[in-house]
TrEMBL record:
<feature type="binding site">
    <location>
        <position position="268"/>
    </location>
    <ligand>
        <name>NAD(+)</name>
    </ligand>
</feature>
<dbReference type="InterPro" id="IPR001100">
    <property type="entry name" value="Pyr_nuc-diS_OxRdtase"/>
</dbReference>
<protein>
    <submittedName>
        <fullName>Dihydrolipoyl dehydrogenase</fullName>
        <ecNumber>1.8.1.4</ecNumber>
    </submittedName>
</protein>
<dbReference type="InterPro" id="IPR036188">
    <property type="entry name" value="FAD/NAD-bd_sf"/>
</dbReference>
<feature type="domain" description="FAD/NAD(P)-binding">
    <location>
        <begin position="7"/>
        <end position="325"/>
    </location>
</feature>
<comment type="similarity">
    <text>Belongs to the class-I pyridine nucleotide-disulfide oxidoreductase family.</text>
</comment>
<feature type="disulfide bond" description="Redox-active">
    <location>
        <begin position="43"/>
        <end position="48"/>
    </location>
</feature>
<dbReference type="GO" id="GO:0004148">
    <property type="term" value="F:dihydrolipoyl dehydrogenase (NADH) activity"/>
</dbReference>
<feature type="active site" description="Proton acceptor">
    <location>
        <position position="442"/>
    </location>
</feature>
<feature type="domain" description="Pyridine nucleotide-disulphide oxidoreductase dimerisation">
    <location>
        <begin position="349"/>
        <end position="452"/>
    </location>
</feature>
<keyword id="KW-0520">NAD</keyword>
<dbReference type="GO" id="GO:0050660">
    <property type="term" value="F:flavin adenine dinucleotide binding"/>
</dbReference>
<feature type="binding site">
    <location>
        <position position="310"/>
    </location>
    <ligand>
        <name>FAD</name>
    </ligand>
</feature>
<dbReference type="GO" id="GO:0003955">
    <property type="term" value="F:NAD(P)H dehydrogenase (quinone) activity"/>
</dbReference>
<keyword id="KW-0547">Nucleotide-binding</keyword>
<keyword id="KW-0560">Oxidoreductase</keyword>
<feature type="binding site">
    <location>
        <begin position="141"/>
        <end position="143"/>
    </location>
    <ligand>
        <name>FAD</name>
    </ligand>
</feature>
Length: 473
């Protein structure tokens, strides 16, 4: 058996693993970078980039179909599914190529091809026959789609997001199971590209929206565009000669059966930690057998083992994985000296239309008596109406005594951009009045943001007057 000893072993070469490698190299040249599958990131290969390419095509089609609102006549809009998917793959491959080039530039002597499994807290068995002993180890193994057992009967007609981008032609019909980020983005895009879409949610969840009022607006909006069924439970899926038959139960016990070309399982992702042999390390494990870890140092209960990225099963976002990989790699490089890393204000975006954004803390994460809510509807907001994008709502949450912005949730136009502005404000601990003192141009969608903060400012003034009155009494 071949054996090798290194200072740092990094398992995985996705966003977190690549970040960890770059940081660890600043402190040691004794590294094993282990990869059993493809080099490259989930985002570039099967995630954010190819999905945005599909969404871009869908938005172009949707805009052409609805040009009449501006007095423009577009007689027909035909979807060339083969051409759409060809561009998705070409551009996707281009993005992947850039990532692979980065890995190609890494020191070849550091690269180890194969799947790793812990023999104990310091030894890794690679399935190519190599045994690696490492002083410090970073787990950056990413995640994979979760497929409920009830959908397995769909056989070859079952898709996950990885598979969608390999379709050479667009299908005529798809049943999407799940209304999270993946299901909502891909389902709406397919619908706008003339695919008949039925989307099922086990409850009333839509794109991870926490606020019930905003969630209801979003549900009504999407239900006006495609067949969105809330409180639905899949009972059976069976592959047929030319498709798949799915039976599901709606609220009230009503059972429906549909036959579609494909079923898309958008039912979440699970961390790739279940085959690592973590039981051999003595590490404390939490939900889904994922190691418990410190979010500022990435340390597990075994101080020399760190975990970063989607493998942590916390926030499966590229920018979070990048930060976590950087922190884990740096601490693995300097161990036993370990420093807490910089964590940014929370920011999440769903690229549906209208878009969804969450920033910092949301209402359900705050105590009711500690904050006030400012809100605005975009139904009559000036610039939104000009663009015929006047849908949705923004709510901002501020500390009721200091006025500091704590978080926000939005369903509406340009949420990806407004979310960034609000995240910057949260990270800077800006107050409602300080934000209102910032410039707002006219006419822009951001004027709606100002309306929400003006609403919050009035509530803060009322609280201040009431507290002054009680003090005098």
């Amino acid at each position: 058996m071949l054996k090798r000893k290194v200072d740092v072993a990094i398992i995985g070469t996705g966003t977190a693993g690549m970040g960890a490698y770059r940081e660890a190299r600043k402190h040691t040249d004794s590294i094993a970078l282990i990869e059993g599958s493809h080099y490259g990131t989930t985002c570039a290969r099967v995630g954010c980039m190819p999905s945005k390419l599909l969404i871009a095509a869908a938005e172009a089609a949707h805009g052409a179909k609805h040009a009449s609102v501006f007095g423009l006549n577009v007689p027909t809009v035909e979807t060339d599914g083969a051409s759409v998917m060809d561009r998705v793959r070409r551009e996707r491959d281009r993005f992947v190529g850039f990532v692979v080039e980065d890995v190609d530039d890494f020191d070849d002597s550091h690269k180890v091809r194969g799947y790793a499994r812990f023999l104990d807290a310091h030894r890794l068995q690679i399935d190519n026959g190599l045994e690696i002993t490492a002083d410090r180890i970073v787990i950056a193994t990413g995640s994979r789609p979760f497929i409920p057992e009830v959908l397995e009967g769909a056989g070859n007609r079952l898709l996950v997001n990885d598979d969608v981008f390999e379709l050479e032609h667009l299908p005529s019909s798809v049943l999407v199971v799940g209304t999270g980020v993946i299901g909502l983005e891909l389902g709406q895009a397919l619908s706008r590209l003339n695919v008949k879409v039925t989307m099922l949610s086990r409850n009333e969840s839509i794109g991870g929206i926490a606020d019930s009022e905003i969630r209801k607006i979003a549900a009504d909006t999407f239900q006006s565009e495609f067949d969105l069924v809330l409180h639905a439970e899949v009972l059976a899926a069976k592959e047929t000669l030319n498709g798949v038959q799915v039976t599901y139960r709606k609220s009230g016990g009503i059972v429906h059966t549909v036959v579609v070309d494909y079923v898309l399982a958008a039912t979440g992702r699970i961390p790739n930690t279940d085959k690592l042999g973590l039981e051999n390390t003595g590490i404390a494990l939490g939900a889904r057998s994922v190691p418990d870890s410190d979010r500022y140092t990435m340390q597990t209960s075994a101080p020399h083992i760190f975990i970063a990225g989607d493998a942590k099963n916390e926030l499966p976002l590229l920018h979070e994985a990048s930060d976590e990989g950087r922190i884990a790699g740096s601490n693995a490089g300097t161990f036993p000296t370990v420093e807490p890393g910089h964590r940014r204000a929370g920011l999440g975006v769903v690229f549906s239309d209208p878009q969804i954004a969450s920033v910092g803390k949301r209402a359900h994460e705050l105590l009711p008596y500690t904050f006030i809510t400012g809100k605005v509807s975009f139904h009559n907001q000036g610039r939104s109406r000009v663009m015929a994008k006047n849908q949705g709502m923004l709510k901002i949450y501020a500390d009721k005594h200091s006025g500091i912005l704590l978080g926000a949730e939005m369903f509406g136009p340009a949420a990806e951009h407004i979310g960034h502005l609000l995240a910057w404000a949260v990270q800077q601990s800006l107050t409602v009045n300080e934000i209102l003192g910032m410039p707002f141009y006219h006419p822009v969608i951001e004027e709606g943001v100002r309306t929400a903060f003006r609403d919050a400012a009035e509530q803060l003034k009322t609280i201040e007057r009431e507290e002054a009155s009680h003090a005098v009494a």
